[in-house]
């Protein structure tokens, strides 16, 4: 069943497939598993809806042995069960998250700061997911195109961006097959994308990024000892692996560490 993050639901109660999320009067986030069914209970208020929840949900879901599907559905359910109106719930989540990313209180803030520092001119972002980086760039008057393989994420971004006062383009596509012409954007970003795909797919995505970029490609990956299954990671990187990836392209490149690893390729 395709996930529609804006579909109607009862106030305080959201369900999709085998995951139900319920808002209760008090208490921490708790998980109850009955067979294949997962029931999540929480007492969050609107002020708590932001990317900061990722760490808490990761600890809860990962510790219980669940995977990426359960993680993603729990995050959607927390947002939708906290604020009754669908679009308003996501607007709150996005606004809170962007505030924390810009003021430096979000865990991912240093990564977005570095990405914004590295881009040149117009940007096409691969694997945008919720689209926080494209929104941040759009807020700085950077022409930006967000892309993702999941239609639902781009539909959500299209709905929320205007309510936040941002203008961005979106595309639903595989990051290895983007329907744009050569040299479409000055910079192509792939921020925490390659750890989600195997080596062959990652190589194809990097080749596609170089086709699209006029000036540079910016890649960021986390450094992990073990791939984080609940976030959909299937492989790990270190500086040596990034050096090998950069060298394989035949392009000038730089590798450095900053809250993970970075590979910057000159197109």
TrEMBL record:
<dbReference type="GO" id="GO:0008757">
    <property type="term" value="F:S-adenosylmethionine-dependent methyltransferase activity"/>
</dbReference>
<protein>
    <submittedName>
        <fullName>Class I SAM-dependent methyltransferase</fullName>
    </submittedName>
</protein>
<dbReference type="InterPro" id="IPR013216">
    <property type="entry name" value="Methyltransf_11"/>
</dbReference>
<keyword id="KW-0808">Transferase</keyword>
<dbReference type="Pfam" id="PF08241">
    <property type="entry name" value="Methyltransf_11"/>
</dbReference>
<dbReference type="GO" id="GO:0032259">
    <property type="term" value="P:methylation"/>
</dbReference>
<dbReference type="InterPro" id="IPR029063">
    <property type="entry name" value="SAM-dependent_MTases_sf"/>
</dbReference>
<keyword id="KW-0489">Methyltransferase</keyword>
<feature type="domain" description="Methyltransferase type 11">
    <location>
        <begin position="124"/>
        <end position="215"/>
    </location>
</feature>
């Amino acid at each position: 069943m395709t996930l529609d993050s804006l579909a109607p639901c009862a106030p305080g109660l959201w369900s999709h497939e085998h995951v139900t999320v319920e808002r209760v009067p008090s208490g921490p986030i708790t998980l109850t598993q009955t067979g294949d069914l997962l029931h999540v209970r929480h007492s969050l208020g609107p002020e708590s809806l932001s990317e900061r929840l990722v760490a808490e949900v990761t600890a809860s879901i990962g510790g219980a042995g669940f995977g990426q599907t359960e993680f993603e559905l729990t995050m959607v359910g927390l947002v939708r069960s906290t604020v009754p109106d669908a679009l308003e719930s996501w607007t709150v989540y996005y606004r809170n998250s962007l505030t924390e990313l810009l003021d430096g209180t979000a865990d991912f803030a240093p990564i977005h700061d570095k990405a914004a520092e590295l881009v040149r001119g117009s940007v096409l972002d691969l694997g945008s997911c919720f689209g926080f980086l494209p929104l941040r760039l759009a807020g700085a008057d950077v022409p930006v195109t967000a892309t993702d393989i999941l239609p639902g994420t781009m539909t959500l971004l299209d709905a929320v961006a205007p309510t936040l006062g941002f203008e961005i383009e979106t595309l639903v596509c595989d990051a290895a097959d983007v329907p744009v012409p050569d040299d479409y954007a000055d910079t192509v970003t792939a921020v925490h994308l390659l750890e989600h795909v195997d080596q062959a797919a990652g190589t194809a995505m990097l080749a596609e990024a170089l086709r699209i970029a006029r000036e540079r490609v910016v890649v960021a990956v986390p450094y992990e000892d073990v791939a984080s299954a609940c976030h959909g990671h299937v492989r790990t990187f270190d500086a040596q692996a990034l050096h090998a990836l950069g060298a394989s392209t035949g392009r000038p490149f730089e590798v450095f560490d900053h809250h993970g690893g970075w590979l910057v390729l000159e197109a």
